[in-house]
Structure formats: structure tokens, C-alpha cells
Amino acid sequence: MSHDRDDLPYRPCVGVMLFNAAGLVFVGNRRDRAGDGDDAWQMPQGGLDDGEDPLTAARRELAEETNVTSAALIAEAPDWYSYDVPDDLASGRFRRKWRGQTQKWFAMRFTGDDAEIDIERPLGGAHPPEFDAWRWERLDRLAGLIVPFKRPVYEKVCAAFAHLAATP
């Protein structure tokens, strides 16, 4: 990374670890990385709008990416976790403004039915789809499914919420 990018701030973001009743976690396969192997999966996450409360942002991002609104807050990660975006993936405005992302993570229990999940037309098509596939996954497998530069953050999130997961 260039010295200039090292001096940039992190973009404030949120993430949601959504658990189903069996203690499995929602993961979606990123549409923009389809075909890149089995490391294009991630949990719902996205940026905070100006002045937005992190929990409000987490609920908004969850709905915008999965259509899920039936979710109860069960835990909040104790810290903000950060990662740098590699130079070859940082482009445009992001490259000039941010070095990476810092995320506040929330664990939520999905209280709806799987039919509520609609990754093709989240919120009735109000938002473009981010995922091209989804599944419920064991927490102990999550870090291995994410792109390598985000793995240290996922490991911390998994450790923070491990007590909520199904045991293998």
C-alpha cells in the first residue's frame, strides 16, 4: 500500500451476524465476486449514513441486502474491528477517501421464516441485489469462507459471538 493510503481514515460500517433458530449463521455469496472460488461469502454489512446510529444502520443494511426485517438484537461486539482494502480492490472515490473499513458488529436472531429472505429483490427491488446465493452456515466455518483480507475481522466477530452459535 502507498504511504498516502496509509494516512487515510477507515470508513465507518456495520455488520450483522444473523442466527437462525438452530444457531446457524446467514451468509451470502457476493454477486460481484461470483466464480472466484469459495471465498466470496460474507455476512450482511455496509456503511453508516451521516449521523446514523450503528444499530439503525445494521437493521437497514440487513433489510437492504437480505429483505430481512424480522430480527431481534441479541448481542453487540465489544469493539470496532478494522481492515485495509487491498490496493487492487480499492477504486474510485473509495481509494481516495478511505484506507479500509472499521465495523461495529451486531448479532441478531432471525425471527421470521426463510421465505422472508429475498436476495434477488430486497425491499421489493428498492435496492440492487448484493448476493447471488445464500445459505445457513456453522459459525466455525465462516472465517474460511471470506476473502483473505477480511478474515482477521471475521475471526474476531466469530469469537465475540461464539457463545450464541450451534455446536458442531
UniProtKB/TrEMBL annotation:
MF term (GO), any: guanosine-3',5'-bis(diphosphate) 3'-diphosphatase activity
GO biological process: nucleoside phosphate metabolic process; ribose phosphate metabolic process
Catalytic activity, EC: 3.6.1.-
Keywords: Hydrolase
Residue ranges of the motif Nudix box: 46-67
Cofactor(s) annotated in UniProt: Mg(2+); a divalent metal cation
Residue ranges annotated for the Nudix hydrolase domain, each copy included: 9-159
Matches recorded under Gene3D superfamilies: Nucleoside Triphosphate Pyrophosphohydrolase
Function field: Accelerates the degradation of transcripts by removing pyrophosphate from the 5'-end of triphosphorylated RNA, leading to a more labile monophosphorylated state that can stimulate subsequent ribonuclease cleavage.
HAMAP family in the cross-refs: Nudix_RppH
Similarity-based family: Belongs to the Nudix hydrolase family. RppH subfamily.
Official protein name in the record: RNA pyrophosphohydrolase
Organism: Oharaeibacter diazotrophicus
